[in-house]
Amino acid sequence: MGESKQRLVVLGAGWLGKALCINQQENGWLVQGTHRSEAHSHDFLRQLELKNDQLHHQLDLENAWWVCAMPPRSRHADSNYQATLERSFALAKQMNMQGFILCSSTAVYGNNEQVYDEKSNIIVAGERQQRLVDAEQYVLNNGGKVLRLAGLMGPNRDPGQFVAGKELSGSSQQVVNMVHQQDVINAIVTVCEHWQVAGSTYNVVNPSHPSKVDYYTQKCTQNGTPPPTFLSHEKAERIIDGSAIESLGFTYQFDI
């Protein structure tokens, strides 16, 4: 019976990755999720760390789907993000993975005021963008798929908490590109379930794009905290279109 279960390995069991592990474990999947610590707060956690260019790990789940959800802080210039990704991908091949999904970011797109979709040209204008592009290209060149995630929100991550009372450098009329944690989890599972017909890259972005002033004011009002102020009030609509993944039968179900 157990051999027929779906299997999942999540690289980076942080805020998103741990929630993905818990969600799929509750759905009957066999799950392992990695972190650097030797202390494990959940039975599915396994240590994985790159030391002296060698990947040290406790993973042993063969024939699994692999999802890289290493958190954004891992992508700093002085991190081992790219090397860890590449070593982990090689390990996934050795363990006969079903497929590999990279959780990337819509920050890969430029800042021009336009609508971006998966076919939009990407012009690299900084180190952060370059790191995202490098990771994506490695995964795509090796047969994996990429999900470009919008700003994440959900349990214990309320956007109103991060901006309360702050002066923000952008325009109050910039629109938000956000997505709920559970919609991301559902999108990942959808791509796994439709692997053979799925495209190589999808944006995962809620179709609602309110202005920042409206969005953050609402969130701060709900929290009883002062709303942010803005340095500019010029119209600025940079919209990421996340509708392509709906062709797989996926729907956005959670409000931002």
Structure description:
The protein is of the alpha/beta class and 256 residues long. Helix content is 28%, strand content 27%. It has an 8-stranded mixed β-sheet, with helices on both faces. A two-stranded parallel sheet has the order 7-14. The longest helix is centred in the middle third of the chain and has 15 residues, at 127-141. The relative contact order is 0.14. Helix 2 (81-94) runs parallel beside helix 3 (127-141). The protein has a single domain (2-155, 177-206, 240-248), classed as NAD(P)-binding Rossmann-like Domain (Rossmann fold), CATH 3.40.50.720.
From the alpha-carbon coordinates, what is the Rg to the nearest angstrom?
A: 19 Å
* CATH hierarchy: architecture: 3-Layer(aba) Sandwich
β-strand amount: 25-35%
Poorly predicted runs are: none
- Secondary-structure element string: EHEEEEHEEHEEHEEHEHEE
- The first-level CATH class is given as Alpha Beta
Give the structure's gist in a few sentences:
The protein has 256 residues and is an alpha/beta fold.
Explain the layout of strands and helices.
Elements: E1 7-11, H1 15-26, E2 30-35, E3 45-51, E4 54-57, E5 65-68, H2 81-94, E6 99-105, E7 115-116, H3 127-141, E8 145-149, E9 151-153, H4 159-163, E10 167-174, E11 178-180, H5 181-193, E12 201-204, H6 212-223, E13 229-236, E14 239-240
Parallel strand pairs: 1-2, 1-5, 2-3, 5-6, 6-8, 7-14, 8-12, 9-11, 10-13
Antiparallel strand pairs: 3-4
Helix pairs in contact: 2-3
